[in-house]
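About this split. The held-out portion is used to measure sequence recovery: a designer receives only the structure tokens and must propose an amino acid at every position. Recovery is the fraction of positions where the proposal matches the reference. Here is one held-out target exactly as it appears in the evaluation file.
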């Protein structure tokens, strides 16, 4: 088993993290297969290119969605997971992660978990 540590001291977006995984050796086909197993309501296209920032080279991933809905509630995300073809382990782990995020957001905003809506983390690249 290989372990990767991500030191995201100033945050990371979904497309940036996926690009880093692809740059580290994850086959694009594996990612595309995983996305297909989500049975998403919209077609997701991945566009992988190379970018240069100064003297550095990196992968750049664009996640193209026709009508992306960035504001999803926890129930929306859990329904997407339940209707997916992902393994039960992946479904349970992902559901737990999003539930913990919703609970933290609810505490910070003083709102019930059901009213919390995710912004960028609710986007399809997350």
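Reference sequence for scoring:
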């Amino acid at each position: 088993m290989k372990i990767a540590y991500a030191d995201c001291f100033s945050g990371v977006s979904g497309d940036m993290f996926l690009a880093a995984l692809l740059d580290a050796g994850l086959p694009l086909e594996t990612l595309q297969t995983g996305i297909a197993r989500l049975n998403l309501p919209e077609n997701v296209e991945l566009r992988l290119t190379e970018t240069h920032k100064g003297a550095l080279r990196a992968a750049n991933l664009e996640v193209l969605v026709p009508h992306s809905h960035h504001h999803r509630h926890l129930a929306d995300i859990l329904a997407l997971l339940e209707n997916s073809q992902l393994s039960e382990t992946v479904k349970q782990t992902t559901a737990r992660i999003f539930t913990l995020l919703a609970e933290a957001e609810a505490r910070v905003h003083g709102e019930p978990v059901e009213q919390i809506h995710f912004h960028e983390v609710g986007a399809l690249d997350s």
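Annotator remark: The longest strand covers residues 45-53.
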